[in-house]
Amino acid sequence: MINTILFDVDGVLLSEEHYFDASALTVWEMLISCNYLALAPEKLKTNYTETEIKEIRSLVFQNDETLKLMKSRGLNANWDMIYLVFSHQLIHLLAQIKEMEMDNIRKWCQAPIDRESLLEIGRVLSNYNVKMDFTLFEKDFSRSNVMKQELLGYLNELAYEKLGVKTDIFKKGELWTICEHVSQEWYVGDDNILESTGRPSVQMGKSGFLANETTLAPREEIAALFQGLLSAGYRIGIGTGRPKLETIQPFKHLEWLLYFDENHIVTEDDVLLAEKEQPESSPLSKPNPFPYIMANKGKSASVADCLKTKLPLENGESILVVGDSLADLLAARKMGVRFAAVLTGLSGQDARKEFEEHRADYILDSVLDVARILEK
């Protein structure tokens, strides 16, 4: 009998659309801005119109097909998606100059790529007529069956194939951190960037998307769902890939936070701290079940205790995970708990077939339908 419900946030309670917008703008900025590769600095803005954002996202993510491919491979974190798409495009750009700049390419592939490296690469690229090509992502990654974090490692294979250089630089490191920071500039804006990352914006002038969250059902009805669950004696928690700021602040604004014990709200900040404490266990983001395990146990439990949790859980039938992605489903499966797939994520109703193939316990049109499940 279910007594605990653990919710994902993006695609379940709040729309992911602005995250995907910010992700596309991040890739675009890092390619064109003079702060990075400087391919077209005259095109950089910090206040694109909705139409311009839609056009950039359509180009960078190929009408969202690139996003869907990454999601279908179990990749759930927007920062990983940004890093994957930008790094793939970087390899493509370098491949266009390898005949003339092989010595430089070998040098760049021998050490982690930081912002100074990007600036240097940009200066060299400016001497040639190189072209971006976002259509190549699906072609290159469709040739491999790699899943989840292995997608990042596959970049090294593509670098060897396209550049003729053996390297292991394409992994979570300095370049990943740069992608993360630019993404946060776009999402939280100048007013919140220091709180979010501890560093100021490289490119000032961004107001951010944080103040414009969109709920995936009426705010009051979701609040009524939480209240109803608590009144019926259920325990509820959150396991999300969002950072703390981007989880707690909207929940306060929407007046949802009062229904939760923050000890059972696990965000990407908690995951990153856990990875620093136990680096040999990384990565701990979903589809690793760690966020949901900690959300269930509470953050008062140690990281080591969460990692030592015997899986599948003995009481797995008593826990329901509510998510919108394959990463959520895989995490729930490893935990041995029930899983409710909500069709309000990126793929919408089109995700039903995938969830049916993976035998989700429940497939719901809305998070509000959780109440219906529990009545049975």
Structure description:
With 376 residues, the chain is of the alpha/beta class. It has 18 helices and six strands. It has two domains: 173 residues, Rossmann fold; 194 residues, no CATH class. The longest helix is centred in the N-terminal third of the chain and has 18 residues. The chain is globular, with a radius of gyration of 21 Å.
Structural class: alpha/beta
Task: Tell me the fraction of residues in β-strands, as a range.
Answer: 5-15%
Shape category? globular
What's the helical proportion of residues?
Answer: 40-55%
Unreliable spans are none
Number of distinct helices: 18
The chain-level mean pLDDT equals: 95
Count of folded domains: 2
Strand order of the largest sheet: 3-2-1-4-5-6
The arrangement of helices and strands along the chain is: EHHHHHHHHHHHEHEHHHEHEHEH
* N-end to C-end Cα span: 10 Å
The profile of the biggest β sheet is:
6 strands, parallel
How many strand units? 6
Radius of gyration: 21 Å
Tags for this model:
alpha/beta; single chain; 6 strands; 376 residues; 47% helix; six-stranded parallel beta sheet; Rossmann fold; 2 domains
